[in-house]
Amino acid sequence: MFGIRLAAIRSEKARAWIEGRKRWRERMPAPKSGIRYWFHCASLGEFEQARPLIERYQKEGIEICLSFFSPSGYESRKNYALASWVGYLPMDGPRVAKDFMRLMDADQVFFVKYEFWYFFLMEIKARKLPAYLISARFRPEQPFFKWYGSLHRQMLHTYTRIFTQDQTSVDLLKRINVKQVQYAGDTRFDRVIQLPRQRQTLPVLEHFCKDHFTVIAGSSWPEEEELIEKAIPYFPDMRWVLVPHDISENHIMGMEDRFKGNFVRYSALEQGKAAGEASVLIVDKMGLLVNVYPYGQVAFVGGGFSNALHNILEAAVWGMPVMYGNHIEKYPEGQELAEAGGGNSIGGLDDLLGLLREWQDEKIRNLSGEKAIQWIEENVGATERILGAIDGSTATQKTPR
Question: Bridge-partner residues for 108, per DSSP?
Fold first, then answer.
């Protein structure tokens, strides 16, 4: 905690992390009037994995409460319409967990992917609440599977059921005698398969990209932005739409300096400014990415050079080939999409240039795009498997791959 306070002096996100947890007891939801489910997500990516379940339960009239660990997740979804309450998860501790669970008064609890908060889980167990971990992935190097991991293994047994994204995770858990586990798949596929039917048009993008081969850089980090800067001279007629992960004014100004006179802001185009000769469009508004992708022919998803890969599914579902950095050890979906023929990881500028030249061939590009969609379609169904298991029905387990 001291480290976070020290970082807050310099970091806007750290300050938000601390401020969001002040007087948290006063910000808890009002007493419930019916059934209430609490979903906790570390950040926005985990929220997208919880979202299909949230939508289904909310349709059934169940009240949804939603908590986040990170400021980026909270800020993105603090006004989420399907949740009656959105807030921060306070720091784990025996008194905090007891007070939080008393005030939350949830009937069921859902954690997503990598959530292991010891005192919260112990309090949930003491209250005999059903608790589920969804879209989980486990790796042999994690503490659960080490000689010193007894405390971590204890947390695993507090969950009523653990739903994993892959069979490897099931096998690892069963080796340490965790039996309440099921391979269900990744719920994000169920979410993204709906996106083309929910598409919202963006006239600014339509005008900027018209008649140009366009690359959409989704959730770009500085590493992707630097490569794009170097690639632009090789493709003078190409358009580049950058949707940065960090849309703070400081970062946007840094991007403007990088691309000098060759850029225009999305917000400026909305206000009537002409794009002129700019080949780079910087999207400086939050929440547009899923509706930006269909205006491109190729996607370049950020985070892959830092082992923090963003959502490649949101790009693949539009039937376009996807590329991303090659440091993706924690993100098997990157390897899976590449094996399916719908995407490629890249190591640097030469790889980027090579793929762009290859994908300018419409037949090659369309074939990769078709394989990307096929990969999405083959992986839907996790939500139904999870709901079936929780409801006690005979929903089939996902066939191991």
Answer: 37
Nearest to 71 by CA among 89, 98, 97, 48: 89
Question: Alpha-carbon dihedral of residues 8, 330, 161, 143, nearest 10 degrees?
Answer: -70
Are 121 and 34 within one domain?
Answer: yes
Contact in structure between 192 and 313 (CB atoms under 8 Å): yes
Q: Are 138 and 332 in contact (CB under 8 A)?
A: no
Report the half-sphere exposure of 81 (CA within 13 A, side-chain side): 2
Residue listed under structure tokens 């999207």: 283
3-class secondary-structure state, position 239: strand
Size of the chain, expressed as the number of residues it contains: 401
pLDDT band at 91 (very low <50, low <70, confident <90, very high): confident
Q: Which residues pair with 162 in a beta bridge?
A: 133, 181
**Quick one: 165 and 258 in the same domain?**
no
Question: Could you tell me the residue range of the domain that residue 302 belongs to?
Answer: 198-378
Spacing of C-alpha 251 from chain mean position: 21
Distance CA 153, CA 151 (A): 5
Across all residues in the chain, what is the average pLDDT?
92
The answer on 359 and 240 residing in a single domain is yes
Asked if residue 397 is part of any domain, the answer here is no
Q: Indicate whether 163 and 307 sit together in one domain.
A: no
Closest CA to 46 of 129, 124, 136: 136
The band of 1, judged by pLDDT with boundaries at 50, 70 and 90, is very low
Both 344 and 386 in one domain: the answer is no
Do both 166 and 97 map to the same domain? yes
Tell me the C-alpha distance between 142 and 149, whole Å: 9
- Which pLDDT value is given to residue 14? 67
Strand partners, 161: 132
- Residue 9 pLDDT level (bands cut at 50, 70, 90): very low
